[in-house]
Each structure stands twice: as C-alpha cells, then as structure tokens.
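Lines hold sequence, tokenised fold; shown next:
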Amino acid sequence: MMSGMAAKKSIAPGNEGSSLLESLLGALRPLESVAVGFSGGVDSTVVVAAAAQALGRENTLAVTAASETLPARELAESRRLAAGLGIHLEVIRTRELDNPDFAANGPNRCYYCKTELWRRVRLLAREKGLAHVADGVNADDLGDFRPGITASDEAGVVHPLARIGAGKRQVRLLARQLGLENWDKPAQACLSSRFPYGAGLTPAALARVEQAEEFLRSQGFKKLRVRDHGSTARIEVPPSELVRLAASGLRQQAVSYFKKLGYTYVALDLEGFRSGSMNETLKP
C-alpha cells in the first residue's frame, strides 16, 4: 500500500483508469529498478508513483535538475511531492547556460539541455545501482516538436507512459487512480520556453520572467505564460480569464509591476494560453 497522496482517491475496478494502471504497472515491473526524471508535473509524478508501486520505493529514485531555467516554486513542489510519496529525491545542479548551444536558444535548445540532463541522471543511477532511467513523456508528446525526446532516446531513457499509449487525458486518469493531489495541475515548461527562438538566454532574463509569472499566480491565475519579447511582455491566460486580467484595477497593477521589472510594453495575447506557442513560428 502507498501512503500520503497515493492513498487519497481511487477509481472503481473495471474502468479505463484501472486498466491503464495495470498496463503501466506491467510496463514498469520488468525494469527492476529505476531513476525517474522528476519535474513535479503530472506525467513524471505518475511514473514515480507507479514505479514505487510496481518496484518498491527502495528501487525507485526521483531525480530533479535544478538550474536557472527551473522556477523556484517548481523545485519546492518537487520536494514536497516526493516527500508525500515517500520517495527519495536527488536534486542535481545543472548549468545549461554554460553551454553556448543552449544559451543561443535555437529550435534545438532542448536537445542540448536533455543530453546533459540524462548524462547526469545515468551516472547517478549507476552510482545507486539502479538498472534503468525513465521519464514522463506521454503518447501525445511524440506528435509535438520535442528535440529533448531525441536526446532521451539517444540516452536509452524509457518512456513508460508513451509505451502503453497514454496521452494527456489518460495520464490525468492515471493520476486520479493513484490518488495524486496534482492530477489537475496545469502543464509546466522550463523558463527558457518563454523566449522566441534565437533570443539569447541569460540568468537575469529568466529571473525576470519568473517574477512576472509569480505576480500573476499571486492574483489567482493558474494556467499562464509570460512570453518575453525583449521590451515587451506578452501574457497568455485562458480565454475565459482575459476579461478579469483586463479589468481596470488588476490591469493597472500588472502594468505597474511589469514595468518595474524592466518591460516597456505589457501585452495581453487575445488568443489565450497555449503550451508551446513559441513553436508557432517554426515551419512544419
């Protein structure tokens, strides 16, 4: 039995959630032991929780990479979730910005980041005597532009969710089946995704975006992005929340705060929140 978060909710046997969970556990059991790249998002939390159930906590390690591209809030969340699951968490410090190929922020930026990440995780897994390395890539991710997946494939990383054909909707079903409190957490991405391809990444620029997004979260927004276009901040929130953000009082507070951060212009994207909107500039 799993304790804490993993014992809160269940779905009746025989439904899609139960079938998915059995498939996931079946995909994990042959691994024997595993180090899981753990971001604190729904996907990787599902893999960590299921691995603990299939292999035992003693054979499951969660690994989080901390760097300037990871919001402090997400690192704290990873620590809290791992503790709630009773899983040991290793935090490794990575320095993506030291790699000029990454800092240049080209379309293949994630490839360089993940290549270094999985090299470090593999070394850690070897030190701990763990047989495999896994991540939270799901079946829907395979249809998107994800150079980071190429790097993980080259490193021999196992994708348990994609292996059983679980996409975003199925992953949330699995999270509820496992009783995870973050089953409905909005998708997150590293801070480098807030910049147009080709715009160089610096610690100061990443920190500014993080502060801008924290302000919006303090105002009750959960699904959001602040896209940094140099002197302009382009805010994405769900279409249903555009009116609230544009209301006079909150709008003035946001403009004032963002200008203190150094933005000259503060724009509200009328198309609304969407993951990976910077990829819209790429040719098919």
Observations:
- The first strand starts at residue 34 and ends at 37.
- Residues 191-281 form a domain with the Alpha-Beta Plaits fold (CATH 3.30.70).
- The CA atoms of residues 187 and 275 lie 8 Å apart.
